[in-house]
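As a warm-up, study this chain.
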Amino acid sequence: MKTIAESAFNHNGSLPYTLELAKAAKDAGADYFTIQVMDVAAFCVEDYSKYEIYENNTLSFEEWSKVFAYCRELEMPVIPCVLDIPSFDFCYAEGFRFLKLHATDITNKTMLDKMATFKDVTFILETQCATNLELKFALDIIGDQVECLMHGFSNYPTEVEDLNLNALDYFKNEFPQYTTGLADHSLDTANIPLMVLAKGCEYLEKHITLTRNNRKFDYQVSLYPHEFAVMVQQLKHYQQALGDYKKHPTKTELPYRDVMYKKVLGGGDFKRADAGVDYITHQFNSFKRADVGVALIARLKSKRLPLKVLKPFGGTSIIDFLYQRLKTAKKVKDVFLSTSTLAEDTPLAEVGHQNDHKVYRGHAVSVLDRMLELSLQEEWGAVFRVTGDNPFTDPELVDEMITLMVENDLDYVRANNVPFGVSAELFSTKYLWNLYLHMDNPMHSEYLTLFILNDEEAKKGCIDIVSEVEDLKYINLSVDYQEDYDRALKLEEAIGSENLKECTLQDMVSVIGEFKREDKTKLIKLPEGEDVPFSEFLGRLEDQTYVIRKNVTL
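Now compare it with the structure written out below.
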């Protein structure tokens, strides 16, 4: 959770005080310093009861420019809260693209319409005093640009019974596309901030001041810098307790499993023992590696190409075509369409049932959980991961990979130098279960290949395809964008619909030589926000320490 030090009108119209306040916010450990920028004439009429107060306590745009320059020197990020259109224009010209909109303007249609024309700007939207209808009114205009919905209560100081922190949960349920924040105007610097942290907020805003003795604006809810610093340190300390969104043992817990879990003794007996393994591990260890299944991983969540696996292909849909194609692999025991239990994936499961697919519904995020649950249910000793957007996955190659694994007692098998979307990955389930237990977060299991790359203990094997086609591995036959789908249809036409289901890798290679190659420099996303060039990623796959490599010449 990020902390925002709110200056509001604590600067009292003084530039030196504002600069000192910015430095205090930086020293206190705030992640952001926010200020309210106002053109008084644009903000309120002259006969407004507080007009003179604003007129006498507002910094000029020229002075704000000096504040921004000073904050850049401090490396103190600023989030301007723009209170009128001239102030927005000024802050935009100053280079700001992440701003805050005050609840003052949540129904200011002219202001909102203006903001909607700046697609390169994102906002924190304050919601004090707003109804749900008014919030939706604003989001209908600038919703694509809003990053965070900021809850708060305008009374200073806010009494505990008025905080209504459950509104944060309401935001998460009703508007799940946005992060949440709290503009906290309570006097609490410990319990309320920690409750907000536990609510999963992205931002906590608290007022900051150099003195409360002047009894001027906002002093009632403003923290001294040392109080703000204590709050920040406390939040950083207890943030560690939140951990990750998962139910999975930490690495420090793993040794306790061996001590605590009762072991399989035979004859239905389970007792604590120094030797032996728990039941689930025992099961995976006992499955025959030659009993190989395919988990056909698919969901309907794609935004790049909506409902892509249901698009027409090969006289049916992509997912049905791929399922039927995988069923032709001679050494595969069974194929399951493996999707999630989320309601949004129910139509996919229904399509599977209508086409007589075996369907398994499991974890919404962890692909690895789905694969292991399915393998345990079906007693598979090895499992293929095939994604539903790879209609050209080659059954002959699948059979070759199974043979390589079984004959050499391998943990993992892949094929190199094949068009993207033609191969699959084969795991022994005994190995996959052990990998699962020892990974930090199975929620990242869509990056399963990366975990394999980093595992130097695994017994890996590969099939290296030898072909005269230049840069064969950079031809993309997976379907992720419209251009990919168009390419798949082009290949379908070249091979002929009547031959498509039985076409081999050799058949495909014979007609795709002129297909567009992927950009070798494009970045492949990795966990924790990292990325790597496509060519480097493929190079790492090819340069693994494989205990056996088998060349197949096309």
